[in-house]
Every structure is written in structure tokens, then in C-alpha cells.
Amino acid sequence: MAIPGTVYLVGAGPGDPDLLTIRAARLIERAALIVHDGLVDPAILALARPGARLVSVAKSRARHTLPQDAINELLVREARAGRDVVRLKGGDPLIFGRGGEEAEACHAAGIPVEIVPGISAAGGAAAAAQIALTHRDAASVVSFVAGQCKGLTDQDWAGLAGKGRTLVIYMGVSTAPQIAEKLMADGLAPDMPVAVIENASRPQMRVLRGPLAALPDLVARERVKSPALIVIGAVAARPDAAVAALAEIHTCAS
């Protein structure tokens, strides 16, 4: 029986290859097998060595290349055959990346696992847009929420956003109308500032701003596509002049 390989759960960061950790870049460059998400930037995949096997397990709201159970089985099967596997994920593998599920599946099968953190999508997007998620004058609490979670309208989001707080919503583009309705129903003011950051850290990055009540119209009118994050709170209304020189900025009037 072959000595099992190691599964490396690697964070690819927000998109720009320059934001990879040194450890992540080294693993990508030497890997014979990379199992990657659909949102990993092609420039990062281009770092793989010639002849490396690249397997896409891209997910979208409407279609999954492989269901999660099948991804877990793929990682275990390849590692049991003695192969090291780089499982490459956008952002950080343990923040809405299902890295915990994959690590658990590998541990249960006796497969060694190493987790390589990446710059999170929230941290990378905020930095690229020059939005401080915490600010002494505006916010001392940050919450991360998945915008496509089951039972979205049944959850209590009261207190996640408001005075002194910042709310960052992952995977919220397709559910923007429900998110805005939910937050206002839970007590958030319709004029609460919102920033939508699309393609953070990439050349085509956009920062779109407006009040919470206008979020659905903003997303629809500007045809926002994933990857995109939604930042809600007073910090979203603190534009920096430097951003205008780096990214296309739009404002939606209330």
C-alpha cells in the first residue's frame, strides 16, 4: 500500500498573484496536481509547473462541477494513491471555503493535511478599495455573513450592522434584494452606506457605492458579477481620493 500523500488546503487570496503567501506560491509552483475553485485567477494557475494536472471543481449557485462529497472523495483518493494534492481556494480556505469539511474528510481517512492561510476575500477587497473595516471613528466590530446560506430570510441579522459595526457579505450578488430587505426589516436604516467591491485586487476591479435601499438596483443596473463582496456600514462611506486613480468608482444616489 502506497504511503499517502498530503492534502494542502491553500488560500489563493483575493486574485492578484502578488498577494499569495510565499508558502502558497511555492506549493503551486511544485505541485503535480492542483484541485482548484472556479474563482482562482488564471494568473495564479499559470504559476503551475509545466505538465501539472489542473482539476477544476468550480461551484456556482446554479451548477457545481462536483458536489462537495465528490470533492472530498477526490482528495482522499488521490492522496491514498501516494500523490500530494494542492487544493487551491480563493481567499482563505477556512472562511466560507469549506476547508473545514475537506480537512475533516481527510483526517477521517487518515490523510495528512496542511492548511496554508490566504489573504481573505474580505481583507483583500477592503485593502484594494481602501476601506478600513475597522476605524476608531466608525467601527469596532466586523461580522462576516454568507449571502447564499440556507434559510436566509429566517435568520436574525439584527445587530450585525449599524452604529459602530461593519458587515461584510460574501456571495451576496444574486441575493442582494433579499439581503437589503432582510437588513431593513431587522432595523437597519435604508440610508446605511454600502460598497460593492467587484474583482478585488484585479485590473478590472470596481467599487460601487450607495445606500442600502438602493443595493438591489445598484447590483442589477451595473450587472455586478462574482467575485464581489458587499460592505455595509459607516466605513463604506469613507472614500479615499487614491481609490479614484486606481479603480472605477460609481455612486448610486438614494
How does this model look, in words?
Helix content is about 25%, strand content about 25%. The chain has eight helices and eleven strands. It has helices at about 20-30, 40-45, 70-80, 100-110, 120-130, 175-185, 215-220, 240-245; strands at about 5-10, 35, 55, 85-90, 115, 140-145, 165-170, 195-200, 205-210, 230, 250. Strands 6-7-10-8-9-11 form a six-stranded mixed β-sheet, sandwiched between helices. It has a five-stranded parallel β-sheet with strand order 3-2-4-1-5, sandwiched between helices. A hairpin with a 7-residue loop joins β8 (about 195-200) and β9 (about 205-210). The radius of gyration is 19 Å and the shape is elongated. The chain starts with 6 loop residues before the first strand and ends with a strand. About 45% of the residues are buried.
Q: Using the alpha-carbon principal axes, give the shape.
A: elongated
Number of helices: 8
Number of domains: 2
Order of helices and strands: EHEHEHEHEHEEHEEHEHE
Q: Strand count, sense and closure of the main sheet?
A: 6 strands, mixed
Strand order of the largest sheet: 6-7-10-8-9-11
Strand content: 15-25%
**What is the SS-derived class?**
alpha/beta
Distance between the termini: 65 Å
Please bin the fraction of helical residues.
Answer: 25-40%
